[in-house]
Amino acid sequence: MAFDISIFEKKEFRSALNKLEELLSHSKSVLLGAGASACAGLPLTNQLTAKALESDKLSADSKQILNVIQSSFADANPASHIEDYLSELVDWLAITSRRANRGVDTSNVKIGNVEYSNDQLLKVIDEIKLAIFEVINIDIDSEIHERFVKALHRPMRPGKDNHSGTIDYLVMNYDTLIEDSLALSELRYADGLEGGVSGWWSPSTFEQKGLEARVLKLHGSINWVEHPLSSTPLRIAPHLKHSRNQSSKIMIWPASTKYRETQLDPYANLMQRARLVLNPRNGNQRVLLIIGYSFGDAHINLEIDKGLKSSHGNLTIIVFTSDANPTGVLKAWHEDNAISEQVLIFADKGFFHADTTIESPHSIQWWRFEYLTQILEGGV
Predict the structure, then answer these.
(1) In terms of residue numbers, what domain contains 125?
(2) What is the DSSP string of 76-111?
(3) In sequence order, which residues have a C-beta less than 8 Å from that of residue 83 and are 6 or more positions away?
(4) Domain final position from 74, 101, 136
(5) Single pTM value for the model
(6) Does residue 246 sit in the same domain as residue 366?
(7) Is residue 340 a part of any domain in this protein?
């Protein structure tokens, strides 16, 4: 379906696009959720959940535990997904691990009517990660993402200045679309790993001079693995035996993890860098463009909220959402007079910014990643 751009012939909607263009000509960062990867052929969160639950990587224990967890989320609104289930398991793992470390005789936890040990939970978590890897590790098309990053790193329209500097990408997804697209677009970036096809965690790469982008994988990545000799990520070429031997130790973690990952690198380092992105200092202005994110991660929402309220007006967020109008945390920010000027919401049926509300009777769909890319390229 083609992008219907006739609505932008109206003065008020053209004005909204002009505001977007003006803001994105300055220092900016990007936060990407699962919706930003759908056009490349990757599943949305609900599709990932359904496919992962059907995976042959899951043992009888894993399926039984997942059935119990699913039942406990039966009335969830919005609907629960595989990251919720993984988060539950990680919380239980924290309990069994804490008890085991303190020498408690009965360190098991009961899930449903069955008790599980620390080792059993570790095995189940690894199986779920493998199932997620299997669903995401498919052939995909990076063309639109390549166009997207090129548009962000140059003026939206020829002849206009663009002061993008280094763009920070806060990526919630496990896929490698952004890294691949930056590399194929010949944009110099750092993702915290030194090396090439095989590499190791080295956060000093983020400090290199001349970077055009930094990629902060806040939930880990399907091409990061944990080696017995290191608690931080390795990237191991798929043709190496190491990769096959360590495939069950994929370094991804769910949205609400409170276990050891939050205290250690790379998670702790990445989150600290994300906080700095969301709280610009010394009078520096920054724009955060949010795409494909449903605001289902309470931790990230809290960090954005802190940034809006503590940056003294220096952080502005631009959100593209498939909701018809602001809901949930977006509605709260839009209605908060202290920060509403810093929040621009491009919803499916309108534009909302402080006292400005421009509504459309029809779906605009400018939140779709491929259509937003067209806008950023100056094609509207």
Answers:
(1) 45-136
(2) -SSPP-HHHHHHHHHHHHHHHHHHHHTT-S---EEE
(3) 45, 219, 254, 255, 256
(4) 136
(5) 0.93
(6) yes
(7) yes
